[in-house]
Amino acid sequence: MADQNDSFYIDKTLYSGRPLNSSGRLPKELRTYDLLDDLNISFVRLDHSPLPTIEACQEVDSILETNVCKNLFLCNAQKTNFYLLLLPGNKKFRTAVVSKQIGTARLSFAEPEFMEEFLDITPGSVSVLGLMNDKEKRVHLLIDREVLDHEYFACHPCINTSSLKFKTSDLFDKIIPAMSCRYTLVDLP
């Protein structure tokens, strides 16, 4: 776990699939593995202490040999429309650019209470896989077009103590349709 120097632990073993022992794993994480298993999606898993920032994910990226996507939970000024934006970890979020492309008032980060209520996830653990918990379809998925250019996609299983890697085609062809969520492609500079 993290110490006073903000270091973190990474088990550098790449595991194939879900943990063999589910004790100590949260129900939302286990639901993630159930979804991937039900869809016959092959994935590798890397376990680690909580990684609260995208910068802390750099070593994880190196071990997984791909970049963990940024997953930003956003809302409009009136807090009536909510969005989950996926973008490559090295890209900057430009609120004006995204807001203009989707035709909404200036976007900002949504409060954690909405994230927990709609997606059953907490700050630092935001993941596209959390959309499986959005039964009322209140969150619209926004995906930076550059995500499509990568063979593999990496994200957390709704908790930031593991990272998963699977084919990007599985995200678009199997996972998103299974979660019945709509998405919009955006272009961030």
Task: Describe this structure as you would to a colleague.
The chain has 189 residues and is an alpha+beta fold. 24% of the residues lie in helices and 21% in strands. The protein has 5 helices and 9 strands. The chain has helices spanning 27-38, 58-64, 95-102, 112-119, 168-178, and strands spanning 15-16, 44-47, 70-75, 82-87, 108-109, 139-144, 152-155, 162-167, 183-186. The strands form 2 sheets. It has a 5-stranded mixed beta sheet. Strands 1-2-8-7 form a 4-stranded antiparallel beta sheet. Strand 7 and strand 8 form a beta hairpin. The termini are far apart.
Question: Short summary of the structure?
Answer:
The chain is an alpha+beta fold and 189 residues long. The protein is built from five helices and nine strands. The strands form two sheets. It has a five-stranded mixed β-sheet.
Q: In total, how many beta strands?
A: 9
SS content category? alpha+beta
How large is the share of residues in beta strands?
A: 15-25%
Shape: globular
**Distinct helical segment count:** 5
Radius of gyration: 16 Å
Provide mean pLDDT, rounded. Answer: 92
Biggest sheet layout: 5 strands, mixed
Measured as a percent range, the helix fraction is 10-25%
Strand order of the largest sheet: 5-3-4-6-9
Topology pattern, helix = H, strand = E: EHEHEEHEHEEEHE
Low-pLDDT segments: 1-5
Cα end-to-end separation = 36 Å
SSE order and pairing:
Layout lengths: L14 E2 L10 H12 L5 E4 L10 H7 L5 E6 L6 E6 L7 H8 L5 E2 L2 H8 L19 E6 L7 E4 L6 E6 H11 L4 E4 L3
Parallel strand pairs: 4-6, 6-9
Antiparallel strand pairs: 1-2, 2-8, 3-4, 3-5, 7-8
